[in-house]
Amino acid sequence: MLLPQNINKINKSTFGNKFTDRHIAYTNEKRKQINKQMMDIFVKRRKQKPLELPALIYDKNSQDMRLLPGMPVIARVNNKSFDIFNNELYTIKKITDEKISLLSDDKVIE
């Protein structure tokens, strides 16, 4: 059973070496590592300049981000005025100098 006290006892080889586009991370350190790896892969495939956002200096769990249209993102906070909710999955639809448009279940959020 996957519990905090036995997380380090999991035999990773049980899951094979397949790399997927969805991950579960137990620590913020691992989440940041996977996020960076996935951003690197996405940016390399797209071959276009991403929007680069630096990590928040007041949040140790924040990280530098590189964003492109088509990239999946997960919300960190609620913003009811934009219908954005914590831990929900969105896809970046469009990035302009003014705003980032998100897509959620075929609904555009601007």
Summarize this structure briefly:
The protein is of the alpha+beta class and 110 residues long. The chain has one helix at 28-46; strands at 51-53, 65-67, 72-74, 89-95, 100-104, 107-109.
Strand content: 15-25%
In quaternary terms, these chains amount to single chain
Overall geometry: globular
Which consecutive residue ranges, at least 5 long each, have pLDDT under 50? none
Q: Which sheet architecture does the biggest sheet show?
A: 4 strands, antiparallel
Decide which structural class fits the backbone.
alpha+beta
SSE map:
Blueprint: H1 28-46, E1 51-53, E2 65-67, E3 72-74, E4 89-95, E5 100-104, E6 107-109
Antiparallel strand pairs: 1-2, 3-4, 4-5, 5-6
Q: Would you kindly provide a written description of the structure presented here, covering whatever features stand out?
A:
This protein is of the alpha+beta class and 110 residues long. Helices cover 17% and strands 22% of the residues. It has one helix at 28-46; strands at 51-53, 65-67, 72-74, 89-95, 100-104, 107-109. The strands form 2 sheets. The chain has a 4-stranded antiparallel beta sheet, with no helix packed on it. The termini are far apart. The model has no long low-confidence stretch (mean pLDDT 87).
